[in-house]
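Notes to self, Monocarboxylate transporter 13:
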Amino acid sequence: MEIFMSRLHGKHVQCARSRRACARGRLPLFSVSTVELAAAAAHVDRTRCHLAVYHSEPGDCGPCAAPEEADRPSRAQADDSVFDMTKHKPKAESRSDEAEGPDGGWGWVLVGALFVSTSLVFGLMRSLGIFFVEFVQYFEESAQAISWISSTGLAAQQFFSPLGAALCNAYDTRVVVMTGGFLAGLGLILASQATSLVHLYLTMGVVSGLGWGLVFTPMVATVMAHFTRRRTLALGLAFSSIGISSFAFNPLFQLLVEMYAWRGALLILGGLSLNIVPCGALVRLKRRPKAPQKVDSESSSSCAAVLRRVSSYLELPLLFERPYLSYTAAITLLNVGYFVPYFHLVAHSRQVGFSEYQAAFVMSAAGATDILGRIASGWFADLGHFRLIHLLSLWTTLAGVFIMLLPVSSLCGSYAALMVISLLYGFCSGALTSLVFAVVPMIVGVERMMGALGLLQLIESVAGLLGTPLSGLLKDITGNYVASFMVAGSFLILGTLTMATLPHYFSCTEPPAPQRRSHDDKDKSYHSELAQINSSPSDTSHGGAQ
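result:
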């Protein structure tokens, strides 16, 4: 027996699909006209009735025969449908409805907060190449060993992102981000007193990486939740801070190292990173509503209940969905080579004979076009002429090609050629960044976006942990960075090929929107309530009255 259940003035209305269901005694059979049903609705607050509506024509069950839709009608629509039950047809859920947000307001303040926080996370992380040469000279270690400092920080940021997402789902986002900002600054301050590479691994790597993980994913999800049509543009504007900070931080860090040595420079950067704390204080995102409890639920202290709660906070079911896994694999491959130029391009430029400031200015120039790439990509993507996944594939491929051309342009001894390729690489690398995050709600839906971003960052941490050490290892083996950049660019192209395995990738239109999880939870609650009603003694007595 199939049951159609809806809400009428907050009360239950049941409709049997066939006379056979009523004959079994499971539900009472009434033949109710539209007028009678309207009268019953007017008194439903005083009288609880279970109605089984049956149309007089065989095989026609009236409104109960309508196929199930993704959306349930609103209360106003339900009231109108009482008087004209054949007129109402629920509309299928559109992607715009699925991702509807306020598109502005306080969201623009949060864009500013994300602008500052990302500059103090990834902008700072990109500029650590200035310290790379200083660490090699001071600790007298190999390039591979020094590369583990930045890789540990990047991997820790991505590894702890699910923790940040889970804490935001369970508690207050504001507190989580402010705590992360404090840890980020604390790690750099402690790193200024390091006496060995192990100390740098633990401070700049683990402590600051943990703080960055608690900051970045919650801030990105907060901004995305406040925008719909302008989501990619908002992310592009916020992420443009990474390019701006890269443009400003490289010469600034070089100046700080010359004036205060690397210890004093790290101490200043630690104090600068504490500015993330007031950025977190601006977050006002509401916590995710709790899933409805089952009627016959177990004790909340049971092991199964705890596991379900943890799985809900982390969005672990996403790991069993093919589209999400394919996309995560593509971004992981992209991430292996994406950060290699930011950590090794300065050292490579100095190795081929350019001065310290010339090498630093190469990264600054790439950071300038990075800004343009992020804003232009976000604006163009929001026009809707092309699918986001196709634009992401384009920019990823171009970025990979330009990474492979970086050593070729520098080996010819032309500083102008190196500068041109760096400018093109900076534009493409900036253009793809906001799209990486904007595609996520298209795959999993807005409701699961926080957990999806956290898991994505967690899986990416493997690539972040291996990318720059692999580049350093290739440099130690070959004596230069040519092989390092070639391998890094090939990983970006391989990530593009992996994106092509996504379902509906070659379609020119967006696939159907993922169903809202809140609707799924409501459906489970409705069916649970319905099963309890059908098994209650009152239904049995009604069946006997027939």
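- The CA atoms of residues 144 and 470 lie 8 Å apart.
- The first helix runs from residue 19 to 23.
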